[in-house]
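Sequence only, no structure available. Ideas?
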Amino acid sequence: MPQDFQNLKFKKLLDKLQQESWQLELLISGFAIFGLFSATEPIQVNYDIAQNDNNLVPTIIWYAAKVSCWILISNLLVHVILRGLWIGSLGLRYVSGDIDYEELKYNDKFTNFLKKKIGSFDKYIATLENYCSILFAVSFLFIFYFFACLLCLITILLTIFTFLDTNLNGVWEKISVAVGIGLILFIVFGSLLTFIDFISQGLLKKKKWMTKIYFPFYKIFSVITLSFLYRPLVYNFLDNKFGKRLSLILIPVYVGIIIFSTFNYQKSNYINKESSSSKYYANANNYEDQILKENDFIRFASIPSKVITDNYLKLFLIYGNNLEDRIFEFNEGLKPEEDQRGLKSENFSFSSSYKYQRNDSLRKEYYHTLNDIHSIYIDNKKYASDFIATTNNFKKFGFETFLDIDTLPKGKHILKVLRKKIIRKDTLNTVLVTIPFWKFNK
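Reply:
I predicted one. Tokens follow.
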């Protein structure tokens, strides 16, 4: 029945559950912490894979899962510690009762100070109980806050892809751009108002003239941020002084943690750990025999080892999402009328034999363009490339070619892979990757 929540028996049941909820809190926290710690590694691996492959949607999804896990872990760990302290305090109260300041025989100055600041032991236990109960709810509330920020960002990206990144021409392109810019400005301004209202704990809802401006944004952003799902939790959290005070403490703490996580220790003024190899730095991810962990990824290209003892050099070029777009830029005839990339169902795909024959006839042209837009140099000497599609030892899809280095002298050499790009109608050769290696005889 819809009116059951007003029933006296139901309210008594809630009061009883409220008093005994600490047992469920500890049980759920324990299982949740164990499960979340077990999930962090596979989530991190999938996030690294999506980021390395430049897949925007999976990157956002796995990033959201990663942040949500760590928000829950950090909050639940604090909750378990405080709840343990609460249980310990109850045990101490059973043995020792309340604090007897007279028994301590301190000076009156210290006695009066301690009575004022600490008060009774029951007050301390009640404060711990309040923090424990609210922290358990806050753990999930902050995830909703994070999702709200993420959804605002996703809305902006969708607007850009829908209205600004289009193939329209003429008047329709101008209309699309104008609508897109207008929507982006609206979303940014609405996000700013929502954030101000959140930080100020509802300031924009208090003044009459402010509410007239903010109310339309509030209704729209309640849908964008999905706040209608957790709004009762928010207002029940903010309708008392303790909840407001705790939110004022936690927000700076989270901001401080985010800022602190960006710091790292700088060991040298001239030498840094770089994300890719260069003339002066050899990144392990460019050498296949040094890729040991599942979440070590080849960013652009790799060779078998730092030391090459054969008279040939294998070069593996990773397949990136934007590679095929580069090929289409230099050979528009390869661009299909309907782009088949993306998530597809094998069971519900209908393709004619003509389509397969046409794709097969264009495959040779595809590889020709692929080799044409890439240039390979060793010590500034150009080498011919003949890339073919393959998977490497780590099941990564890409292209492979072999270079004849029989005449290379012993010692250090620099391999460079260049890729053509069209920038403002000009064709430029940009360095895709630089890999140092050493050649010695067996």
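The first strand starts at residue 301 and ends at 302.
Hope that gets you unstuck.
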